[in-house]
Design brief:
By secondary structure, the chain is an alpha+beta fold. Helix content is 48%, strand content 18%. It is elongated, with a radius of gyration of 36 Å.
């Protein structure tokens, strides 16, 4: 050890001697006849070509940026087809026998079906056919629809089957109209907003939701029917025949053909009351209003929708085709603030319940913030260690790669969404390597005294192979994500495409554009007249001296020790590997299939046993809602007096759960009196210290056990990928299955 540390260091880092003759930048050294051959040399010598390539990438990216689709979450098919049939008043057993089994038998032979799942509930049967990977979805949809249409043994009371492809489409923005107003007023306001929003250029699909449908009900006492010698079917036929539009053929004239059509569809209560149900021989008539009670109201359903404790109607705006989320949200919010809100009647309020564009804006802001920090650090590091001009053009090249990736996304049909933006954020940290390596080699070659143009060509050619393979290995590392099958593959597919595109464009820019921009680096040691450049040169010299002291001091001694005692180094490396592996079984490093992403809305979903009335379900929903409000009050006590309210809104529904599978809730739907949902919207995450998970746990504890419920769950996750554990049980006998299910739950 005395010999090792007492002797002079075997090697030292020294600056290249300045006494070497400096080659003139205008007369490059031509010792290598092939130096100026090939595409790299051509781009270095022809600045117009290099700049045109850079401008072409930028122009393509800017153009694509105005055209590429914007969406919060990538919209795709779930490779499943749903068949729903409404059978009013039927029990689950009747639905299973009369609807579900017949649909299953009809479609089981359709080519491409992987699995068939069915649910028989009160008043509705739903059959879902999951397709095999690679199956032709359009063909399967047509085949299944054809098979279902051939079923002629459905009950007469059953409605027409609804056959549709399942997608993950969700509303961009949901507006709540609520207050001290009757149901008709809220519904008409929602319909008015729907019509006016549909007229906006950037909006094409709007839907009023959480409201009951209009219905004309006619009630005729049995005694009155007997008194006039009528029957209920006879009155029903008369009403049906008197309320319809009928074509009546055409009349040919000398100049044109005139189509004749009778318009007799009734829409108002008065129209139905005027229907003649009986004509007497003396010419007198008996009208429906004289023998029946006609009500112009709403369907008799179990739907209850309340927002902040008051009746509510919702207006949902969806993105379709190539529409852009941010443009839709801006247009809707402008309409809501400037046109809809000022025109609402007294007692009715407008609130934005959900605006998914906020999530997209936040992710865009995070990308811009990370990119700005990353580029600033790159500029600072390269300026302090190398050269200001090199730092500038390296940063420009990184920006060009990111802008150009938009053109690749547009060409491949990839949208700007949460996952593709995650790919951009991921690429920010790995894309700078190739540009820095090329730039540093050119700078080092220039410091040897090589002419500027020759240094750019020689250094780039020397480093192009290792740089290319370094980038290719990173691309290969991300490429397996391109081949992940199924729904997960569709979710993750944008990430590798974005990362690979950024890397490829960065490599092109670093090899063919950056060398030309660095072919005009000034002579090393030549003092610039620009005060800014002189300041950074002075700072670089100080950093360079400090770096040399570190290289020739601690780093050299560490390397000498590592080479003299390899056993210690190897043992330390093995120990670190063992320690790292042990973190997983020890539970210190968690393992999750998909990380939980909490949102601002905490949802409680309740399902009571079949047969529970809506009033009973509403009673439990109110209990859950009150428990949530008590939890909010408890957390409010620990917050400053001037802090904004923790609770933004409470949205409660009875008769239906949270929306599933798109605007129509997954096809045909049937309100169920035994289900309810309570949704509590908290203050935005960046404005509160309380996590949504903590609120979820406190709410669950406050509600306690609901032994009467069939199912009760509370969730704060923004994105759900299914339950951690799911057990599927089957048995031919329903009662036995229920008993087995209870035993498994216990």
């Amino acid at each position: 050890m005395q010999r090792l540390y007492g002797s002079p260091p075997p090697f030292r880092y020294e600056q290249n001697p300045k006494s070497e003759p400096m080659a003139s930048s205008s007369e490059p050294n031509r010792t290598d006849e092939t130096l100026y051959s090939g595409p790299i040399a051509y781009m270095v010598k022809n600045g117009v070509a290099a700049n045109l390539l850079m401008l072409a990438i930028i122009a393509a990216g800017v153009f694509a940026g105005t055209k590429v689709v914007q969406e919060v979450f990538p919209e795709f098919s779930l490779d499943s087809i749903s068949i729903s049939v409404v059978y009013p008043g039927a029990t689950p057993e009747e639905v299973e026998e009369s609807i579900v089994q017949k649909v299953e038998e009809a479609i089981e032979a359709v080519e491409g079906i992987k699995e068939i799942r069915a649910t028989a509930a009160e008043g509705i049967g739903t059959v879902t056919a999951e397709l095999q990977l690679g199956a032709d979805l359009a063909r399967a949809l047509d085949d299944i629809k054809a098979e279902v249409d051939q079923i002629t043994t459905f009950p007469i009371q059953a409605e027409e089957p609804s056959v549709r492809e399942l997608t993950n489409r969700q509303a961009v923005i949901r507006m709540a109209l609520y207050g001290d107003a009757d149901e008709r007023t809220l519904k008409e306001l929602a319909y008015r907003a729907e019509d006016e929003l549909a007229q906006l250029d950037v909006v094409s699909f709007v839907q009023a939701a959480s409201i009951r449908q209009y219905e004309i009900s006619i009630e005729v006492p049995q005694g009155v029917l007997q008194a006039y010698g009528l029957s209920l079917p006879q009155v029903a036929r008369t009403v049906a025949a008197s309320s319809l539009d009928l074509p009546a053929g055409t009349i040919d004239t000398r100049d044109q053909e005139v189509r004749v059509r009778t318009l007799g569809q009734n829409y108002r209560q008065q129209d139905f009351e005027d229907i003649v149900v009986l004509s007497r021989p003396d010419g007198t008539t008996l009208r429906l209003g004289q023998i029946a009670t006609v009500r112009d109201g709403f369907e008799d359903s179990d739907l209850i929708s309340r927002y902040n404790g008051k009746p509510a109607a919702f207006v949902e705006v969806y993105r379709t085709s190539d529409e852009r989320v941010l443009e839709i949200a801006d247009a809707v919010l402008e309409y809501a603030d400037n046109e809809l809100a000022p025109s609402l009647p007294a007692g009715v309020q407008l609130s934005i319940w959900q605006d998914d564009s906020d999530v997209l804006r936040d992710r865009l802001g995070l990308l811009i913030k990370n990119a700005a920090i990353g580029l600033s650090l790159v500029l600072l590091a390269l300026t302090l260690f190398l050269n200001l001009r090199l730092a500038f053009w390296t940063s420009v090249g990184i920006g060009v790669a990111f802008v150009g990736t938009l053109a690749v996304m547009y060409a491949l049909g990839i949208s700007i969404n949460l996952l593709s933006l995650f790919g951009f954020i991921l690429a920010v940290g790995i894309v700078v390597d190739d540009a820095i390596v090329v730039g540093e080699n050119i700078f080092a070659e220039r410091e040897k005294g090589t002419g500027a143009e020759e240094a750019a060509v020689k250094a780039t050619k020397r480093i192009v192979v290792p740089v290319t393979f370094a980038v290719l290995t990173t691309m290969v590392a991300f490429s397996p994500l391109l081949f992940v099958p199924g729904t997960i593959g569709k979710i993750l597919g944008a990430i590798p495409i974005v990362v690979i595109s950024v890397l490829a464009l960065s490599l092109i820019e670093s090899v063919f554009v950056l060398p030309h921009h660095l072919s005009t680096l000034p002579e090393p040691g030549k003092e610039s007249k620009n005060p800014i450049v002189r300041f950074f040169d002075s700072a670089r010299n100080r950093v360079d001296r400090g770096l040399k002291r570190f290289l020739n001091g601690p780093l050299q001694r560490g390397l000498e020790f590592a080479t003299a005692a390899p056993a210690i180094i190897i043992a330390g490396a093995v120990a670190l590997i063992i320690l790292s592996i042990a973190l997983v079984p020890a539970g210190i490093l968690k393992v999750q299939f998909f990380p939980a992403v909490e949102g601002d809305v905490v949802s409680a979903n309740l399902e009571m046993p079949v047969g529970t009335t809506s009033a009973e379900t509403q009673r439990f929903a109110e209990r859950i809602e009150a428990a949530g409000e008590r939890v909010v009050e408890q957390f409010e006590q620990d917050r400053p007096d001037d802090a904004p309210p923790l609770l933004e809104a409470v949205y409660t529904t009875v008769g239906t759960g949270p929306p599933q599978g798109g605007p129509d809730g997954g096809g045909a739907s049937r309100l169920q009196a035994n289900v309810a949902a309570v949704n509590i919207k908290l203050l935005k995450a960046e404005e509160r210290e309380l996590s949504a998970v903590a609120f979820e746990e406190a709410w669950r504890e406050e509600v306690g056990s609901i032994t009467e419920a069939k199912s009760f769950t509370i969730s704060s996750d923004l994105i759900g990928v299914g339950d951690p554990v799911s057990v599927e049980l089957s048995h031919p006998n329903g009662e036995t299955l229920d008993e087995i299910t209870r035993r498994v739950q216990d």
